[in-house]
Amino acid sequence: MTSARDALNDLKWHRGSLEGVEVAYVHRGAPDDTAYAKGSDILAVRRSFFDLAGGASIPYHRVLRITVAGETIWQRRGSS
What we know:
By secondary structure, this protein is α+β, with helices and mostly antiparallel strands. The chain has one helix at 4-15, and strands at 21-26, 34-38, 42-45, 49-52, 57-59, 63-68, 71-75. The protein has a single domain (4-75), classed as SH3 type barrels (Roll). A four-stranded antiparallel sheet has the order 2-1-6-7, with helices on one face. A three-stranded antiparallel sheet has the order 3-4-5, with helices on one face.
C-alpha cells in the first residue's frame, strides 16, 4: 500500500471493518505531539482526510502509523 488512505480503504472494504484499527497522527499539544483514533471512531474515509466522531477531520499527511490488533500495517516513511 502506498498511502494511509489506501490502507484505511483496504481495511474498510476488503476486511469489512475498521474495528481493532488504531491510527496514530500528529496532534500538536498532545503528549509526544501524537494522538490516536480508534477505527470505530472513523466515520468516513475521504479523498484528502478522514472524519472522526466528534467532528474532527484528519488530513492523511498527519498520519504516522496504522495498526491492527497491535500490528503495524502502514507507517509513514522516516517515522519510528
